[in-house]
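Quick one:
INPUT:
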C-alpha cells in the first residue's frame, strides 16, 4: 500500500508517539526562508480535543465544527460561538480510527469515515450516531454535495469511490478511479467531484458517476479543495499548492507554501485559501485573486486538517500532535 505524507504522519503519531521530524521548526514559507505576513490573521483560541485529531468540517448554518479524532475513536463537536467542545460523539470502540469528516448543512448531518470499513452518520441536532453505512476496504476522504444530498467516500484499498444517498443512507454507485484514492472535494455548482489518487486527480461527473478527466499532479499529495464561485481547485503537493481550472482541467499556477502541506480549505466569499503545513506547524493563507501567500500563521504541532466557516470567515486547524484545534480569524478592522 502506498503511504502518502498524511499516512506517515498518522502512523508516526498514533503508533510510535514521536514528534515527527520538522515539528519543532520555525515558521517558514517552504524553503526555509521566513515569510513576512502581508495579511492580518490571528489565532484566537486553541481548543483541546481528542487524541490525534486529523480531519475537521464546519457547518456554517449552526456555527458548529466537527473534528475526527483518529486516536480516540471519537468526534469532537465544537461551538463556534464559545470555542468549546460541547459534545464528544463515539463512533465505535477503540481502534475504530475515524479519519475523515464532512457536513451537509442543509440536513444538519455529519459523515465520518473510519478505517474499519464504515461511515458513521451523526445528527447535528442530537449529536448521536443515527446510522452506520458499510463501504468496504479502507475508507478515507469524504465529501458532500448538499444540493443533491449525496456523499462521496474514497476507498484506499479498492481504487474506487462509493456514492451514498443521504436520503436512504445506502451506497447507490461505485466509481472506479486511480490507484490509492485519498482526499476528495465537491463543487456543488457544477456537480463535479475531485479525487486525489497516487499521482493524479480524477474528475468525476456527479450526474453520470463517471470519470470525465484525469489530471497529473505528482507524488506526495495532501489535500484538495474547491472554490465553487471561481470554479477553481486547489491541491497540495510536496511544498506547493497547485491551482487547477475547473473549466479546462489544467494547472494554471503553482504556489509555494510550507513544508509537507496537508489539508487545504477555501472561503469562497473572500476567495481565500488556507493550507495546513504539517512540517513547520504553520498555516499558509493564500489570496485566490493573486495566487500569492499573504500570511503565514504559527499554529499547534502537526497541523493536518483545515476547514473554514464561510459565514464567520473563521478557520479551524487540527493539530495532530498537540491534540488541539487552532481557531484562526481575520484581525478586526
Amino acid at each position: 500500500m502506498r503511504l502518502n505524507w498524511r499516512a506517515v504522519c498518522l502512523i508516526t503519531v498514533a503508533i510510535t508517539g514521536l514528534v515527527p521530524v520538522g515539528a519543532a521548526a520555525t515558521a517558514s514559507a517552504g524553503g526555509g526562508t521566513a515569510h513576512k505576513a502581508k495579511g492580518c490573521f490571528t489565532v484566537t483560541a486553541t481548543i483541546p480535543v481528542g487524541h490525534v485529531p486529523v480531519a475537521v468540517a464546519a457547518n456554517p448554518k449552526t456555527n458548529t465544527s466537527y473534528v475526527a479524532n483518529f486516536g480516540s475513536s471519537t468526534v469532537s463537536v465544537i461551538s463556534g460561538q464559545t470555542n468549546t467542545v460541547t459534545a464528544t460523539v463515539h463512533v465505535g470502540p477503540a481502534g475504530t480510527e475515524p479519519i475523515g469528516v464532512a457536513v451537509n448543512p442543509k440536513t444538519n448531518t455529519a459523515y465520518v469515515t473510519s478505517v474499519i470499513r464504515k461511515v458513521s452518520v451523526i445528527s447535528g441536532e442530537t449529536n448521536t450516531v443515527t446510522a452506520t453505512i458499510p463501504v468496504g476496504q479502507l475508507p478515507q476522504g469524504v465529501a458532500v454535495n448538499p444540493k443533491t444530498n449525496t456523499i462521496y467516500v474514497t476507498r484506499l484499498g479498492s481504487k474506487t469511490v462509493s456514492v451514498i444517498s443521504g436520503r436512504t443512507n445506502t451506497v447507490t454507485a461505485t466509481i472506479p478511479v486511480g490507484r490509492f484514492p485519498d482526499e476528495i472535494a465537491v463543487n456543488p455548482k457544477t456537480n463535479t467531484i475531485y479525487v486525489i489518487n497516487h499521482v493524479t486527480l480524477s474528475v468525476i461527473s456527479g450526474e453520470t458517476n463517471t470519470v470525465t478527466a484525469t489530471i497529473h499532479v505528482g507524488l506526495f499529495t495532501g489535500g484538495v479543495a474547491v472554490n465553487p464561485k471561481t470554479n477553481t481547485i486547489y491541491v497540495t503537493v510536496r511544498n506547493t499548492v497547485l491551482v487547477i481550472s475547473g473549466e479546462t482541467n489544467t494547472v494554471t499556477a503553482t504556489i509555494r507554501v510550507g513544508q509537507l502541506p496537508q489539508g487545504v480549505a477555501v472561503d469562497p466569499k473572500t476567495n481565500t485559501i488556507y493550507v495546513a503545513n504539517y512540517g513547520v506547524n504553520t498555516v499558509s493563507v493564500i489570496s485566490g485573486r493573486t495566487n500569492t501567500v499573504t500570511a503565514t500563521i504559527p499554529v499547534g504541532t502537526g497541523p493536518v486538517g483545515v476547514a473554514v466557516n464561510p459565514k464567520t470567515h473563521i478557520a479551524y486547524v487540527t493539530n495532530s500532535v498537540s491534540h488541539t484545534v487552532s481557531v484562526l480569524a481575520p484581525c478586526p478592522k
